[in-house]
Model the fold of this input.
Amino acid sequence: MTLARFTAIILFVKKPSGILGEIRRVLLWFKPGLGLKRWMALILLGITLLGLGFAVLLLDLYRTDSTNSILLTVLYYASLRFLPRLLRALIFGGAGIAMVVFGFLELNRSLMRPFVRPGSSMANEILSYKRLEKGPRVVAIGGGHGLASLLRGLKEHTHNITAVVTVADDGGSSGRLRESLGILPPGDIRNCLAALSNDEAMLTQLFQYRFSGVGGLDGHSFGNLFITALSDITGSMEEAVAESGRVLSVHGRVLPSTLHDVRLVADMQVPHSLNEIRVEGESRIPQMAGRVRRVWLEPNDASAFPPVIKALLRAELIVVGPGSLYTSILPNLLVQDVLSAMQSSRATKIFVCNIATQSGETDTYSCYDHVHALEEHVGDDLFDIVLCNDQYGGQLDPSSQFVRVDERTLADPRVYTADLLDDAHAWRHDSAKLSEVIINLYNERTGPLSDRME
Done:
């Protein structure tokens, strides 16, 4: 049996124990992609040369100092001269390699202990990091909890993530900070940073913590105040977001679609009437009784944040949604530079339809209605794939209902349906299911058989 075959067998044995487990852990260091073998070879060569120099020195001492019989006797037995030369080489070589490997592993284990997750090995962590570093360049566009849910799943497939969020939010803590300090609303930025963080569970609790009964802090979330403080320290919101990512050990970037102070405006049709009313403010639109006919930004010529344009043009995969159709997704695409960059990008573009309707915004909408409303604002044929959920189990809020795949939806050749439902919370996507389907769709379109399939 060859060494390569033996290595493959050991590496693919599921959770081997005892000696096999130790051998598997050692062989992981020789797996392609780690980028360590070249340096291990260099270290081994250096130690070999050092040992060779020391051996020459001992040999010279052994040959010249013939008057010291005690020293000669010690050198004779220490060098195992009483054994055949080949056996001595094997003994010294094997002992040297064992000590080098053991010392190397223990040194790295000591250095990396703070960064290795419980239950995982250092080699597995490095392999995972290398794999994620080589993942596709993804731009995710949206806002609210839908985008955070998507990012939570995507970070398990790639580190090359750019989240583009809306800055039209004017309600709650974000709206108050925007009104009083004149900064971009940090709410969606906060959610995305937490979702991309390594220690998401604790960071989410911390960032979502809201002060209550504390004077001017009442109702503010810690995450919003944290980003606001960094904005004041660094002098700009974009620098604050970048520094937040570094401080929180975030893999990926979170960028505002524009740095301009924009407002979302909607024309809404009044129930039981042909009249329309104009509603200003993202937070007021879902509260108004009526059907949204059209939304736009004021000013409507706000320029995009330049890094967003660069990310879109370099992207291999662009995912729009999930999220509130009119108040989270469209405010990003209504920035004309963002839309133009998307149209020019050669990336695979996927629209993710919501699981459930949103009261006051998409009541009674099907998947087809979501796509139709979106394309009325940004034009047809922007997306290569429309991803819809086809499972409707679970309990929803009485004011909401499942966004269903109807005949008009299935007539669209771009539509792909799958089970995307979060079993514990039926109104939202399961992060793992959603990200896995998206990555599989991307691989199908970019794999070796993609040209033949087209």
